[in-house]
Amino acid sequence: MEFITENLKGIILALIAVFAGIAITLNIKKSSKKKNTNKVNQKGNRVGGDMAGRDVNK
């Protein structure tokens, strides 16, 4: 019991740090699930000449 009373401030700060770390982790996971708006659907598009890149199957 003496240990807890002597180190109460440190214990409380450690608990706050743990809960803050959990909250930050949850926010990062939540933001990583957002839909990527950089992707473009190009299915069915036709290109010829210099516009066609190396991914075009000839």
Write a brief structural summary.
With 58 residues, this protein is mainly alpha-helical. The protein has helices at residues 2-6, 8-32. The chain is rod-shaped.
Structure description:
This protein is 52% helix and 0% strand. It has helices at residues 2-6, 8-32. The model has no long low-confidence stretch (mean pLDDT 75). The chain crosses the membrane at residues 12-28. Keywords: Membrane, Transmembrane, Transmembrane helix. Residues 32-58 are annotated as: Disordered.
Give the termini distance in whole angstroms: 78 Å
Fraction in beta strands: under 5%
| Rg over CA atoms | 27 Å
Low-confidence stretches: none
The amount of helix comes to 40-55%
Label the structural class.
mainly alpha
- State the order of secondary-structure elements, H for helix, E for strand: HH
- Number of helical stretches of at least 4 residues: 2
Largest beta sheet, briefly?
A: none
| Average pLDDT figure | 75
Which term fits the overall shape?
Answer: rod-shaped
- Total number of strands: 0
How do the helices and strands line up, and which of them pair or pack?
Elements: H1 2-6, H2 8-32
Region (Disordered): 32-58
Transmembrane segments: 12-28
Keywords: Membrane, Transmembrane, Transmembrane helix
